[in-house]
Amino acid sequence: MDALIVIAFLLVLPQAWSTIIQVPESGTYSVGSNILLKCITREENINIIWKDLEKDTIIFIGKGKYTKKEKYRNFEISSSPRNYSLIINDASPTDEGFYSCQDGDIHRNAWLTIEVLPTLTLCVNKSTVNASKPITLTTGNTVVVICKAQNIGPNVFLELKYGSGGWMKPKHSQQDSNDKPTCKVEVIHNQIQCICDANPPVKQYKIFVDGEDKGNSKSVQARHYVPANFSCLAVNDIGVGQSEVRYVSKFQGKEYFKTLCIKT
């Protein structure tokens, strides 16, 4: 008698093996900083690639500089054996972006935020004055102090000091509440989505599945990847926000199984 046996087993996708043992990390740096993005391998690997994902530009292959663009003139690669770490000297705001150390299909990414120090403008009776020198005020003067920040992560605030007294906050002030995105991964209907609170609004999203960049997207189809580890990031004019990693093993309450039919 023929019998049909159905065997169900959890589909587990093997992860690709990578020679990269130390990976780059996202961070915020001041203008003029020397930045090190780690990419260290188990053995020499001439196929390691550094790429600027936002500009879709290959910067280095192995130890050799691939791009001829002037923008990357301050970019170097470590000279130590098995060390393919990216070095950015004297960082400027144009160096802010999303960089990837790649070994075949394995991509290890980092977002760099370059913060610019705030500027201070002092206006007395609607006229701008030199804020770096002491000024004398008289009763009835109207004083406006403007503290302007660009691409800066922490909130900016003002404090005042009179004579030898302590620092204090002004009694009347107006402040825009801006910050980098706060993000989390959610399963909504048939999608894995990156949900973020942000002011200013998000300009760019990225989703990662088991650490691999799935492109500039706010969501991916769950059925294509579950079970897997999901994370995401979002970028606005203040900086980058990253979610925690979330492991999703079920979709719409059902385990994903692969079935195999054997006729005996």
UniProtKB/TrEMBL annotation:
Q: Keyword check for Signal, yes or no.
A: yes
Q: What's the short name of a Pfam family annotated to this entry?
A: V-set
User: Which residues are in the Ig-like domain?
Assistant: 14-102
Query: Is this entry keyworded 4Fe-4S?
Result: no
Which positions carry the signal peptide feature in this UniProt record?
A: 1-18
Q: Which UniProt keywords are given for this protein, alphabetically ordered?
A: Signal
Designated name of the protein? IgLON family member 5
Source organism: Holothuria leucospilota
